[in-house]
Design goal:
Structural class of chain A: alpha+beta
Helix content of chain A: 40-55%
Distance between the termini of chain A: 86 Å
Number of domains of chain A: 3
Oligomer: heterodimer
Distance between the termini of chain B: 87 Å
Strand content of chain A: 15-25%
Number of helices of chain B: 6
CATH architecture of the largest domain in chain A: 2-Layer Sandwich
Number of helices of chain A: 6
Strand order of the largest sheet of chain A: 3-2-7-1-8
CATH architecture of the largest domain in chain B: 2-Layer Sandwich
Shape of chain B: elongated
Number of strands of chain A: 9
Radius of gyration of chain A: 34 Å
Strand order of the largest sheet of chain B: 3-2-7-1-8
Number of domains of chain B: 3
Largest sheet of chain A: 5 strands, antiparallel
Number of strands of chain B: 9
Helix content of chain B: 40-55%
CATH class of the largest domain in chain B: Alpha Beta
Largest interface: A-B, 110 and 115 residues
């Protein structure tokens, strides 16, 4: 194995040639380094931009969360399919009536009644649950209950006799609760129409919303009772937007 | 000073470029690691079919929603074509239109606010991830401030809408939504208390807009348990 080295007193052209070679090697190494750094830089920059572009973050979910998401999406899609079936029937009836030259008052009236009931503009009745609340409970606790009732499929909810519709919020510190400018006492009732089994099971499961409220508000006592027939009032609110205009 | 400048000038431009590139590289690596810090990424292969299933269900859901909106529009047009021109029928059409508007089944546009709600920067606190509870608090504040309609990432909030946590993201109307959350509200807002949310370490930016477009609610409005009471009935 031989090594190249320059001895003192070597000729000047030879030294210059050697210096050029070393300088050339350094330049090549620098260029390669810059190319590698630029390559890594590009990959990282693209990764960063893609990560911030709002791409589905499903990769951040655990297997348990994904299973829950799939169950939720499956149930939701089933409901949407049922809605589509009803809407197709409705459209078919309207088309037939239109072709026969008939009026569709019954269809329209039925549709109107259904939408008004769903929105909270008319009173509704049906089976469900009643939650009796006693003791100190804050507005956030009541809102958590309402949210969980909706998650469990409640179709209509009232708090202390006030129908909960869009825009209605139960707010206030414990002992100073109010809904729609009406003060709520320390004892009141939340009513919800829906499947009594599902509503009760969701609220009272281990680690469920009632257990969580019990941790935050230990003085509050909540009792859930399935009820065969409940009647919930209509809202007093005007739900038609005054500032928002229909965008057809 | 002049010695320093002279030395700097003496440096080969290649070295300066390399130093700057390495600096940017370091910054990007740090940003990448920081961005992945709060939201843990799982990498087990068994999750891949689950992710595919969830993506497929979400695509189906979007398609079903589009079909529902199309059918509702078709029904509205058929009702408007009804040959009857009696005053009672015209009133019925008008009532239907108002009920659909009240229920959020029609898209609306109007003055309002748009919020961008996202996780706080790493180090701002352990509670710096936006949760369903945070979104609900903001929504409640907006309702109390007089909002007439609200949408979260284009999902219109209706009387039956729940906002729940799923992993580090949320479900709204059964739709999977990931941050950042765009919360749009139509209404006559005069003032809005922003400090309450900012104190929690989360990042909230807001814009007051002359016109905010809210989509229509595309979920089911067919109650299975609730039956309308006859007019005039008192509970």
């Amino acid at each position: 194995m031989t090594g190249r080295h320059v001895t003192p007193g070597a000729s000047a052209p030879h030294q210059a040639d050697h210096a050029r070679r070393i300088w050339g090697f350094h330049r090549l190494a620098s260029r390669v380094s810059i190319a590698v750094v630029a390559g890594v830089l590009g990959i990282l920059a693209v990764g960063q931009f893609r990560g911030q572009a709002g791409a589905p973050a499903l990769a951040a979910l655990s297997a348990t969360d994904l299973t829950q998401l799939i169950a939720n999406l499956t149930a939701g899609n089933d409901q949407l399919r049922a809605e589509i079936t009803d809407l197709r029937d409705q459209a078919a009836h309207l088309t037939e009536a239109h072709d026969r030259g008939e009026t569709t008052v019954d269809e329209l009236t039925g549709d109107l009644g259904r939408i008004r009931a769903w929105a909270g503009l008319t009173a509704v009745s049906g089976q469900g649950i009643a939650i009796t609340v006693r003791g100190q409970l804050g507005g956030d606790g009541v809102e958590d209950l309402i949210n969980e009732l909706r998650n469990a499929g409640a179709e209509a909810i009232s708090v202390d006799g006030v129908r909960i519709v869009t825009g209605v919020v139960v707010a206030g510190a414990p002992g100073a609760l109010s809904v729609e400018n009406n003060a709520i006492g320390d004892a009141f009732e939340i009513r919800a129409i829906g499947s009594p089994q599902i509503l009760t099971g969701t609220l009272t499961r281990t680690g469920g919303v009632i257990a969580q409220i019990g941790t935050t508000y230990p003085d509050a006592q909540l009792t859930v009772t399935p009820v065969d027939m409940l009647t919930l009032p209509a809202t007093d609110r005007t739900l038609v937007p005054a500032h928002g205009q229909p965008r057809l | 000073m002049s010695v320093f400048v002279a030395r700097l000038r003496a440096l080969p431009s290649v070295q300066v470029t390399l130093a700057m590139a390495l600096l940017v590289l370091g910054f990007l690596i740090a940003a990448q690691i920081a961005a992945q810090g709060p939201r843990i990424r799982y990498s087990s292969e068994e999750r891949s079919p689950l992710i595919d299933t969830a993506l497929s269900l979400q695509a189906q859901r979007d398609s079903l929603k589009t079909e529902i909106l199309g059918l509702r529009q078709q029904i509205g047009q058929l009702e408007a074509q009804d040959p009857g021109a009696a005053e009672s029928l015209r009133r019925l059409y008008a009532d239907l239109e108002q009920a659909r508007l009240a229920a959020g089944l029609i898209a609306v546009a109007g003055p309002g606010l748009a919020f961008r709600f996202e996780d706080g920067s790493p180090g701002s606190g352990v509670d710096a991830l936006v949760s369903a509870q945070d979104v609900r608090v903001l929504v409640e504040e907006l309702w109390l401030a007089g909002a007439e309609g609200i949408a979260v990432n284009r999902e219109r909030l209706a009387a039956t809408t729940a906002v729940i946590d799923i992993g580090g993201s949320i479900l709204v109307n059964s739709a999977y939504l990931a941050p950042p959350y765009l919360i749009e509200a139509v209404g006559p807002f005069v003032e809005f208390v922003q400090g309450r949310v900012e104190r929690s370490g989360l990042s909230l930016s807001v814009a007051q807009l002359a016109s905010v477009d809210l989509p229509a609610f595309a979920g089911t409005v067919n109650p299975r348990f609730a039956r309308p009471e006859p007019p005039g009935a008192t509970p």
